[in-house]
């Protein structure tokens, strides 16, 4: 591992925005929160994968993976991050290094690949991702990117996050470091307003950002940049001129918020777009911070009026579902900000949470779960598929909300399941998203297929009759 990468990892572990990190001794803090993984042993995602999924939603740049083609195949289009314009981010670019490149080095191939992308697609920038193989053979992607940038007159951004550096979450932060080092602050916006904000750690999954943007537009709040959902390179490059930063998923990109506060004096807060109450609280926090930064004072009053109207509209639409859903039990297998923000959203619809996973949750996330669910909150650190199956089979839950990898456990138990993670096809952000989430849960729970699959097959009935 290169000296620069080691130094960057050590810097990421010194995270001032993490209370758990700051509570450790200096020696323990340097070890970080997770152990480094060996190549090929990165279960749940490696550092390269984390960097790629964190930055790929920047839609107008070319994302070039410097490594074997399998690395690009593993990370390409693995989240439903939607774009309102350019589609180049959905094109898979890779240097596809061979055995000869391993022997002689792949730097020339990388330079030629960057040139080909710029000539054919002319993107505003090219992001180059380091992988295990090219890092192990010593390819200096920083030097190649600098030379290519000088030669072609376009930003070529190195993302030094090879898989063996650590798990996916570390890769998220290393990708964020590349944005901090090479992108943010390199351009000036065409104009600024007193109500400019950045949204950090929001990936516009299935278009969720678009459910929130109309609310901000109605208040006159401008999203100067989103890092990185439906993001544009020039917008992110000028993000240092925002008045306030909103942190959506602190476990992935908290280092952007803390370092922008240190470098540019931009205050940040952590909020959630999931659930009616959390959406309202987010708008209030955003308006309060903007007013403190110089926005018109009437923004606070206008925010309260908007919240009153939107909440009334959402509750009216949810009321018809709440009668059917009250008392239904939900097993929530997710993590991070969704481990508590989705809990609050489901409780608003009358659903009972029998357990929520905290595998990828921070200390702050856990505290919020206790605050919402009380001292008897059933927080699951790491539930095995066998335990999930037993809980569903014994009817301790009526439906499971999780990612795609857990769906077959629910289907085997012949219980309803709904995708709540990044692969989902329905947006659940904002007031409109909460109504959509409740609607989808209602559809899943009362789908007549579950009555059919639970009926014994004719041959099973015949066997029972013979046995009797």
Topology overview:
Elements: H1 3-13, H2 19-22, H3 26-31, H4 47-55, E1 62-66, H5 69-75, E2 93-94, H6 99-104, H7 107-121, E3 126-130, H8 132-136, H9 141-152, E4 156-159, H10 168-182, E5 196-202, H11 209-219, E6 222-228, H12 233-237, E7 244-247, H13 250-264, E8 268-270, H14 276-292, H15 298-325, E9 329-333, H16 338-348, E10 352-357, H17 363-373, E11 379-380, H18 385-393, E12 399-402, H19 407-412, E13 417-419, H20 430-445, H21 449-453, H22 458-467
Parallel strand pairs: 1-2, 1-3, 3-4, 5-6, 5-7, 7-8, 9-10, 9-12, 10-11, 12-13
Helix pairs in contact: 4-10, 7-9, 10-13, 14-15, 15-20, 16-17
Structure in words:
With 468 residues, the protein is an alpha/beta fold. The chain has three domains: 180 residues, Nitrogenase molybdenum iron protein domain (Rossmann fold, 3-Layer(aba) Sandwich); 116 residues, Nitrogenase MoFe cofactor biosynthesis protein NifE, C-terminal (Rossmann fold), CATH 3.40.50; 100 residues, 3-Layer(aba) Sandwich (Rossmann fold), CATH 3.40.50.1980. The chain is built from 22 helices and 13 strands. The protein has a five-stranded parallel β-sheet. It has a four-stranded parallel β-sheet with strand order 2-1-3-4, with helices on both faces. It has a four-stranded parallel β-sheet with strand order 6-5-7-8, sandwiched between helices. The model has no long low-confidence stretch (mean pLDDT 86). Pfam families: Oxidored_nitro (PF00148). This protein may play a role in the biosynthesis of the prosthetic group of nitrogenase (FeMo cofactor). Belongs to the NifD/NifK/NifE/NifN family. This is Nitrogenase iron-molybdenum cofactor biosynthesis protein NifE. Pathway: Cofactor biosynthesis; Fe-Mo cofactor biosynthesis.
């Amino acid at each position: 591992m290169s000296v620069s990468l080691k130094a960057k990892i050590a810097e990421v572990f010194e995270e001032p925005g993490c209370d758990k990190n700051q509570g450790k001794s200096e020696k323990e803090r340097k070890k970080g929160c997770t152990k480094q993984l060996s190549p090929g042993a990165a279960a749940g995602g490696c550092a390269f994968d984390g960097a790629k999924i964190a930055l790929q939603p920047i839609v107008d740049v070319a994302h070039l993976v410097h490594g074997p083609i399998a690395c690009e195949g593993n990370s390409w289009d693995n989240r439903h991050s939607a774009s309102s314009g350019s589609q180049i981010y959905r094109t898979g670019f890779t240097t596809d290094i061979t055995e000869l490149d391993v022997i002689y080095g792949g730097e020339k191939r990388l330079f030629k690949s960057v040139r080909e992308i710029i000539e054919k697609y002319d993107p505003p920038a090219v992001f180059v991702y380091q992988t295990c193989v090219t890092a192990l053979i010593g390819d200096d992607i920083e030097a190649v990117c600098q030379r290519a940038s000088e030669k072609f007159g376009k930003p070529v951004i190195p993302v030094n996050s090879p898989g063996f550096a650590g798990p996916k979450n570390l890769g998220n932060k290393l990708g964020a470091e590349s944005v901090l080092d090479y992108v943010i602050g390199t351009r000036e916006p065409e104009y600024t307003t007193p109500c400019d904000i950045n949204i950090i750690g929001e990936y516009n999954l299935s278009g969720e950002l678009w459910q929130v943007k109309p609310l901000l537009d109605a208040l006159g709040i401008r999203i100067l940049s989103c890092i990185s959902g439906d993001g544009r390179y020039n917008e992110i490059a000028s993000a240092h001129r925002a008045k306030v930063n909103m942190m959506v998923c602190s476990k992935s990109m908290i280092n952007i918020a803390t370092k922008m506060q240190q470098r540019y004096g931009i205050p940040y807060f952590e909020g959630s777009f999931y659930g009616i109450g959390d959406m309202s609280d987010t708008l209030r926090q955003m308006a309060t911070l903007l007013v403190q930064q110089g926005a018109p004072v009437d923004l606070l009053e206008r925010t309260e009026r908007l919240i009153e109207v939107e909440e009334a509209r959402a509750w009216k639409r949810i009321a018809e579902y709440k009668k059917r859903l009250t008392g239904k039990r939900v097993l929530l297998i997710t993590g991070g900000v969704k481990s508590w923000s989705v809990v609050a959203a489901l409780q608003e619809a009358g659903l009972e949470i029998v357990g929520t996973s905290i595998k990828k949750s921070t200390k702050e996330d856990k505290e919020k779960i206790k605050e919402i669910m009380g001292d008897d909150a059933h927080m699951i650190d790491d539930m095995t598929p066998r335990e999930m199956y037993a809980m569903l089979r014994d009817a301790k839950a009526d439906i499971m909300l999780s990612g795609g990898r857990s769906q077959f456990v629910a289907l085997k138990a012949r219980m309803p399941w709904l995708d709540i993670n990044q692969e989902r096809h329905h947006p659940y952000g904002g007031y409109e998203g909460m109504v959509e989430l409740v609607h989808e849960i209602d559809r899943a729970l009362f789908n007549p297929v579950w009555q059919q699959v639970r009926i014994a097959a004719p041959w099973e009935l015949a066997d029972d009759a013979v046995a009797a």
